[in-house]
Amino acid sequence: MKNFFRDVSSKEWRNDFHAIWSLTRQHLPRLIVAVLCSLVLSAINGAIAWLVKPSLDSLFVEKNRTILYLLPAGIFLLFVLRGLFAFLNNFLMSSIGAKIVKTLRQALYNKLLSLPVSFFAGKSSGSIISRVLNDIGSLENLIANTARNFFVQSATVLALAVVALFRRWDLALLSFTVIPLVVLVTDRFGRRMKRTSKKTREFISDVTKMVQETVLGIRVVKAFTMEEEMRRRNDEAVSRHYRNVMREVRIREFTSVSMEIIAGAGIAVILWYGSYLIINDKLSVGSFFSFITAILMIYTPLKRLGQVNNNFQMIRTALHRVKEIFLLGDEEEGGKEMTEIEGHIAYDGVSFHYPDSVEPALKDVSLEIQPGETVAIVGYSGSGKSTLIDLLLGFWNGYTGRITVDGTDIREYSLKGLRSHIGVVSQDIVLFDDTVRNNILFGRPEATEAEVLDAARAAYAHDFIMEMPQGYDTYIGERGVKLSGGQKQRISLARAILKNPKILILDEATSSLDADSEAKIQKALESIMPGRTTLIIAHRLSTINKADRIVVMDRGRIIQQGSHDELFSSGGLYQELYIAQSGMMKN
Question: I need a surface site. Which of 111, 189, 236, 373 has the fewest CB within 10 A?
Fold first, then answer.
């Protein structure tokens, strides 16, 4: 795996051949044994063709009765050996293909974890999943079959060509005249296969994306009675993929048809010329049948070599889509480790544009937050509140100005060290298809059972967890589908509490709770906030009255700061927001 990552990070991996070699050479011992098996198979095929002449001459010309008994036994033995070595070759090549797919899937998953948020913002999750499952999955059989056929068939062609040359060199050279035609046909169809295969990979990605979006959004689909529309979209996506798969089939079969035509023409000419030589007593029947056996056997591996090129182009296409991810740059980070921190945060003249966005998300923002201070950030949607937090977490880079923690620019820290001291309770709750316990432990996997229970109690989640069928061992389904919104929020809060961070970020942490649960969570938050630097992104202003300071943002700028009383009495946007929300609550 280490060698693989070293290769993947090199510029040479941009070359398809080097990429395939870097994947294969990790399994060099198996490959060498498989190639040796291929050579033995080729030698056996050559031996079968070579033995035709002495067998026929001895049996039918010399009437040698010993050959009558030795020939069947010898043929049986050769076929047994050929079957045995074919099994070994196929097994080893298939295991190499499976190991390559395993390595690629592990490496691609690891790569995804190291990519910046900007990558995921620009790609659909269905497209990414398609590359991990479909593109890499297609490589398993392609690599195994292509490698096996390349080594076995190439060596077989060479062995049989030697037999043909020894039996009758002029006939052999005549038969070899079709090889340029084989190369030409293989190259032309291979180019078409590469283009078509690329589209097939894109279309199956669309199908994967369609299924995933439907599964995740099934409640919305049913609520808006969009079943027929979704069926139509899926039918179109599946039909596009089907049509392109059939193009691949046509290319593959046209390659076979062309090879059959070329082989038929070549064999017809050889039969005519060979028969002419026999009639004129210039060639023995045994020599001719030995030669024609070699030639007939040679055309089968030649046809398979034509398919090898098609398969190789499909490998290049699938590998190219995977390589696009591997060659992306990882998250930018420094090498300084963050051990203990006080929690002093400062934004100094920070400005930031999202990619492809005309308006800046932040404009020359300067803000200082003292250790242990609770700061609420408010404003209309799109004012820059979440961006301020995302930059602190290192999710985006490319901003101007400085963001510091305890006086050190966060770009100097390792991202793992930085994020290990920050706990996040987001409005967009992400829970995993696992047990309640493991979802809480996601905040700190090494925590003890007692610490898990304490965190759950602090988040007022313990009671409802104990009422579940298996308590803390209950599986909650994908994204916590078996839980109510309030329950999911409390488990998310327990996860953050267990992490015990020095900096706590609350993105409307009580938004999904009823009044009673909200009051309990507010008490829990008030008990864990002391001693922590807390940033609250607030939409409901009634939840931030006790914040040490409120920061009001508008269009990427900080336009007001102060306590609730100071801001309300001074007028401006905060007063406007508060009055508007108060009016809505009364109504």
Answer: 236
- Distances from the Cα of 210 to the Cα of 109, 129, 214, 394, angstroms: 21, 12, 6, 31
* Summary mean pLDDT of the chain: 78
Task: Outline where DSSP puts E strands in 358-502.
Answer: 362-369, 374-378, 400-405, 408-409, 422-425
| CA-closest candidate to residue 196, choices 259, 253, 148 | 253
Band (pLDDT 50/70/90 cuts) for residue 350 is: very high
Where are the strands (E) in 320-425, listed by range?
A: 345-352, 362-369, 374-378, 400-405, 408-409, 422-425
pLDDT score, position 237: 85
- Could you tell me the pTM of the whole model? 0.74
Residue 454 CA to chain centroid, in angstroms? 38
The DSSP-derived string for 117-163 is: HHHHHTS-HHHHHHIIIIIHHHHHHHHHHHHHHHHHHHHHHHHHHHH
Closest CA to 459 of 523, 531, 536, 544: 523
Domain boundaries along the sequence of the chain: 2-326, 345-586
Distance (Å, whole) CA 474 – CA 436:
6
Alpha helices in 442-482 (DSSP H): 449-458, 462-466
Rounded CA gap, 374 and 414, in Å?
Answer: 25
* Beta-ladder partners of 352: 362
Q: Which pair of tokens denotes residue 55?
A: 């067998």
Q: Which two tokens stand for residue 71?
A: 């020939």
Describe the crossing of helices 136-167 and 169-176 by its angle, rounded to 10 degrees: 150
pLDDT for residue 514? 64
Query: What tens digit of pLDDT does each residue of 439-462 get?
Result: 888 878 888 899 888 888 888 888
Query: In degrees, to the nearest 5, what angle opens at C-alpha 92 toward C-alphas 89 and 98?
Result: 135
Half-sphere exposure at residue 223, Cβ-oriented, CA atoms within 13 angstroms: 4
Banded model confidence at residue 582, pLDDT cuts 50, 70, 90: low
pLDDT tens per residue, range 240-250: 888 888 888 88
pLDDT digits (tens, 9 = 90+) for 153-188: 777 777 777 776 766 777 667 666 676 777 787 778
Q: Encoding tokens for residue 527?
A: 């008990």
Cβ atoms of 345 and 413 within 8 Å: the answer is no
2-326: CATH superfamily: ABC transporter type 1, transmembrane domain (1.20.1560.10)
301 close to 157: Cβ distance less than 8 angstroms: yes
Q: What CATH code is assigned to 345-586?
A: 3.40.50.300
The residue among 268, 257, 279 whose CA lies nearest residue 174 is 268
